[in-house]
Each structure stands twice: as C-alpha cells, then as structure tokens.
C-alpha cells in the first residue's frame, strides 16, 4: 500500500469541506419543524442534531459502500483529481442553493459531481448506469412521494384522534413527540449523509492504492466524516430552516410530529437497504404532506415549485460544474491549483452575498409574506374545508367610527355580514 500523497490529502480535505456544507445545508431536515413550532430553541435544536448526527455516522457503512464501489467504477482509471473535481462541483451547488434558501439535495449534488467528472475523464465506462437508476434516480422520485403521503395520512389521523381534546392539553405532548422524532431524524441523517463523505474518501484511498478495493471505510474516516457533518449541523443552515419551517406551509405541533416521524422511518429504511437517499427530499415531501393533511392548511406552491425545480437541476448542474473542473484538474498540478483557486473564489463570493441579508437563530422564524390563494390551493380547500367553527368566508369588518364633536366615538351601524359568513355561524 502506498502512503497518502499530497493530492489524496487535498481530496480528503475537500471531501470534509463538502461534508461540512452538507451538515449546515441539511440541518433543516431534522430541526426546521421543531424550531418553527417553538418545541426547541434554535441553538438547542441544532446542538442536539449535531450530536446525534455524529452518533449516527457510526451505525452503518452500507451507504458508504454504495458510493465507494456502487456508483463509480474505481477500476476504470478514476484518479484522485477526478474525485476532487466532483467534490468542487458539489460544494459550489450546495452553497448556491443555500444562498437561495432552497432545500436541494446534497446527496444528488455529490452524485452529479462525481458522475460529471467521471464522464469527462474516463467516459461512460466509469459509471455504473444501472446502480445510478436503481439506487439514486428511482429513490429520488419515490421517496418524497411516499414520505409525503405517509405524513399526510399521519397528520389526518392525528387530528382525528384528538378532535375532542383541548388544543392546550395536547400541545405539550406533541412538542415532546416532536423533540423525540427530530432526534430520530438527526440520527437517521447521520447514518445516511455522513456515510456519503466516508464513501468518497474511501474511493479516493482506493484510487490512490492506500486501501484495497471494496474495503470498508477505516475508523479514522468514519470519525472525521462524522465530526465534519456535526460541526456543519451545529452552525445551522438558517436560510433553509426558514424555508422548510415557514416557507412551505404553516406547521402546527401535530403536523411537525407526523412529518418528522414519517421522514425518519423512510430514511432509516433506506440506509439499511444501502440506498443513498436524499434526506432533503424526504423531509421536504413530509412537510408538504403534513400541510395537505391538516384541514384548512395551505401549501405555498410557488415555494414548493422552486424547490422541486432545484431538485431536478441538482444532478445536471453539479455535474456540469464538476465536468468543467475535471477538464482543468486532469491537466496536471497547475490544473488542480486553478480549480482550487476558482472554487475558493466562487465560494467566497457566495458567502459575501449572503452577508447582505443575514439570517441566523435570531430571525429564523420570521416567516415570508403570505402567498395568494391560487388554483391548486383553492381546489384543496374545497375538498378539505376549514375545521368546524371556522368561518367559511371572511366577515366584513365595520368601518372605524368617526369621532363626534366632543371627541367621543359617534355611534355607527355595523357593516352587513355576507350570506356565506352568516350561514356558517348558524
């Protein structure tokens, strides 16, 4: 076995940087609903999530094996500089979507980067197409749909079971349930996402002849990947937390509990099967499902549409950036240096842009402006009317009474109520 060269060391450091961005990019997956409902203080929530991400990194290596030997063929002539280019593409896309506050998939950014760099450097023979379809693309489509349907059903069941209970009596129990389910999502996130970086580092070690092909990640790789993602999680991706907690739908404690429980079950099952699932897509799908499951709930479809568009662009966009980086990196030492300098410049520019309108734990719960009711929302409200006791139509408020000569309010006649509102109150 060879010693770790300077280039492999650069790849390892870059992989850990990606893992760090993965952590703060995906903090919202576990903690957005818990923070938005007030179940936990923002800083407490991200600290708990960071610790459980670290613990989860040690629970399994199945996803890491998928990355190191399932998607990319390490025997096809993949060199460390190719992996470096793939990581640069993934990091740039992660930071761009973080700046926009869009919960895109860090997993698919990594896959797209590795695939794009590999296609440019060694051709289609370096990518296992069937593995990409079976373990990446199909789960990418199915997982958010399954998680969304499960969360919608769980939310409706939860409200039905507690429909005769006072909301104040159940709120405390739901908040406790949210904390437990958020902890489970954090643990599941560690078992899935931290392993992706483990797989990339192991792939780099294999291509450099440091470890044998198809080897499990060494213990130091597992520990370093777990610590990197935990540190990123603790810093908190507040922009994406705001989008998931306030931008998609207004979440109540029962919805948060249902969404997080369904997401955790989906992620843990996929980790056990070795599916490198996008935890972002699963958790976002669960949040949308919980919005549809509550009567009178409104999903902000403009935000959801931008989010789904980002999901579709992630693989090709990260792949395109990585392909360009690979063209430079494979030219030799100067090419690797150029990619590193350009990557640092782009990341620095994104960070500077984010400082213009900073979002942190002090303003993360300041939700966006209400979205106008559109065709989809109106149709859903028709089949899922507001809960009993809620007015079916707004009541026209009386005009402010004019002041009399002595400064007292003059008597006024209240404005008439519309027929729909009157009927709803009878």
From TrEMBL:
GO terms for cellular component: membrane. Residues 384-426 are annotated as: Disordered. It comes from the Bacteria. One of its GO terms (biological process) is phosphate ion transmembrane transport. InterPro entries: Phos_transporter. It is a multi-pass membrane protein. Pfam families: PHO4. Belongs to the inorganic phosphate transporter (PiT) (TC 2.A.20) family. This is Phosphate transporter.
